[in-house]
UniProtKB/TrEMBL annotation:
GO terms for biological process: brassinosteroid biosynthetic process; brassinosteroid homeostasis; sterol metabolic process; terpenoid biosynthetic process. Its cofactor is heme. InterPro entries: Cyt_P450, Cyt_P450_CS, Cyt_P450_E_grp-I, Cyt_P450_sf. Belongs to the cytochrome P450 family. Pathway: Plant hormone biosynthesis; brassinosteroid biosynthesis; Steroid biosynthesis; Hormone biosynthesis. This is Steroid 22-alpha-hydroxylase. GO terms for cellular component: membrane. It is found in: Membrane. Residues 1-22 form the signal peptide.
């Protein structure tokens, strides 16, 4: 009897406790936390390993609405596929939400990478990064480098090309050039090999501790960091004797860090992370653009017309100019549509810094993980007509294919707010130039069916092999 009443009072105490935390936290968005510890992680992963990963989002949006609670990667998480809520999350970076990436990622990136920085340091470094990839820099310098490197690489193509590999080479070489002015050579090739091992490490989430790939990645990271710090040391010496280059590294060495300049470690982390950010993303988007165009011959034909016209105006082997890029109107439709359908970065992770009330009176409790799903919005039929289809023409003219509401909240392949991707314009230019040189020099066929997988990042399984033929003045030889 005593035991019973003890249990009973314990039960009421528990109830009281639960109720008071519930009141303090307000009402969580509806949803299911799935199994203990792993939650719904496995459902998410298996969904993203299929060609059509939408069921994970579709099921839950149908049941609970566009903002729901789930449990991913060891933590309860509020998942938003709602444009308004996403905007709130992205715009209030540093006030209501802060970026929060898993430890496995920060170990690979290094503590001093832009993605992990916060507060005023982040603000300063974000704008420094922007100043090295803004329109003026692209127009006056980077466009030439992109065009030169794209052509250089394409010259060496044989008749069978693994497109994913080739576009990786191009984007890697470009980023190295942009960061520290090196042209492709043996040194950059070796760096790229180590570097690819680091990247593999990102594909081992969510249980990195048990993975040999992850350990190998950490080791490779050490080697890359060593190679980069040698470069930094050499460069410091050059600066002392008055040799100044015009690249990202020069700007970093020139910046006043915490107390009189950044340390080598800070600079290396920063550069390494920039290599990660620009490389996998841009090369995947190049590959997928070609895949979508191959599957949509009408779009390819219209794109080809546009580029033949540009080529005819400029002359056979001339370098592309900024006005050529600006004349690529349909290309920009193809670029946007590829970004929308491919969703390289499916969304961004944040943590609530305080209790945040969102629409319909739901509350995200302080400390909660938040995932703003960009993909969820891009693939929603309410926001994009026939959202799952590749249709570049939807971008022609005002609001074509978009819902009645303004497009600015709907289409965010590069995120938004203070952390919006500083490489957004550069990525567009890289893809446009790549497409220009591809369609004006080659015709191609997909050699094999290649599946696209969406987890942990978007990639093709067989690296998209194609058979190519060189064209002479627009026709096949
Ligand atoms: C198709 C290509 C690309 C896509 C889809 C993409 C997408 C994104 C997204 C969604 C974010 C926001 C992450 C967040 O809010 O947590 C981001 C951040 C970032 N991106 Fe990109 N990106 C691309 C290319 C590039 C390139 C070429 C560069 C290199 C110049 C780059 C450098 C960065 C950096 C440094 C950040 C961190 C910004 C910060 O935290 O302040 N990205 N990117
Ligand atoms: C592509 O999307 C951007 C928003 O990221 C928009 O500003 C631009 O107008 C779009 N381009 C076209 C051709 O619709």
């Amino acid at each position: 009897m005593l035991l019973f009443s003890l249990l009973l009072s314990l039960f009421f105490l528990l109830l009281l406790l639960l109720r008071s935390t519930a009141r303090r936290q307000g009402r969580l968005p509806p949803g299911s936390l799935g199994l203990p510890f792993i939650g719904e992680t496995l459902q998410l992963i298996s969904a993203y390993k299929t060609e059509n990963p939408e069921p994970f989002i579709d099921d839950r949006v149908a049941r609970y609405g566009p903002v729901f609670t789930t449990h991913l990667f060891g933590e309860p998480t509020v998942f938003s596929a709602d444009p308004e809520t996403n905007r709130l999350i992205l715009q209030n970076e540093g006030r209501l939400f802060e970026s929060s990436y898993p430890g496995s990622i920060s170990n690979l990136l290094g503590r001093h990478s832009l993605l992990l920085m916060r507060g005023s340091l982040h603000k300063r470094m974000h704008s420094l990064t922007m100043s090295f990839a803004n329109n003026a820099i692209i127009r006056d310098h980077l466009l030439l480098d992109v065009d030169r490197l794209v052509r250089l690489n394409m010259e060496s193509w044989s008749d069978r090309v693994l497109l994913m590999e080739e576009s990786k080479k191009i984007t890697f070489q470009l980023t190295v050039k942009q960061l520290m002015s090196f042209d492709p050579c043996e040194w950059t090739e070796n760096l790229m090999k180590e570097y690819m091992l680091v990247i593999e490490g990102f594909f081992t989430i969510p249980l990195p501790i048990f993975s040999t790939t992850y350990r190998r990645a950490i080791k490779a990271r050490g080697k890359v960091a060593e190679a980069l710090s040698l470069v930094v040391r050499d460069r410091r010496r050059e600066v002392e004797v008055g040799e100044i280059k015009n690249d990202m590294l020069a700007a970093l060495l020139d910046e006043e860090g915490g107390g009189g300049g950044f340390s080598d470690e800070e600079i290396v982390d920063f550069m390494l992370a920039l290599l990660v950010a620009g490389y996998e993303t841009t090369s995947t988007i190049m590959t997928l653009a070609v895949k979508f165009l191959t599957e949509h011959p009408l779009a390819l034909a219209q794109l080809k017309d546009e580029h033949e016209e540009i080529k005819a105006k400029r002359g056979e082997n001339e370098a592309l100019q900024w006005e050529d890029y600006k004349a690529m109107c349909f290309t920009q439709c193809v670029v946007n549509e590829t970004l929308r359908v491919a969703n390289i970065i499916s969304g961004v992770f944040r943590r609530a810094m305080t209790d945040v009330t969102i629409k319909e009176g739901y509350t995200i409790p302080k400390g909660y993980k938040v995932f703003a799903s960009l993909r969820g919005v891009h693939m929603d039929h309410h926001h994009f007509k026939d959202a799952r289809a590749f249709n570049p023409w939807r971008w022609q003219g005002q609001q074509n294919g978009l819902g009645a509401t303004s497009a600015t909240n709907m289409f965010n392949p590069f995120g938004g707010g203070p952390r919006r991707c500083p490489g957004a314009e550069l990525a567009r230019v890289e893809l446009s130039v790549f497409l220009h040189r591809l369609v004006t020099q080659f015709s191609w066929e997909a050699t094999e069916q290649d599946k696209v997988v969406f987890f942990p990042t978007t990639r093709t399984q067989k690296r998209y092999p194609i058979t190519i033929r060189r064209l002479k003045r627009g026709v096949e030889e």
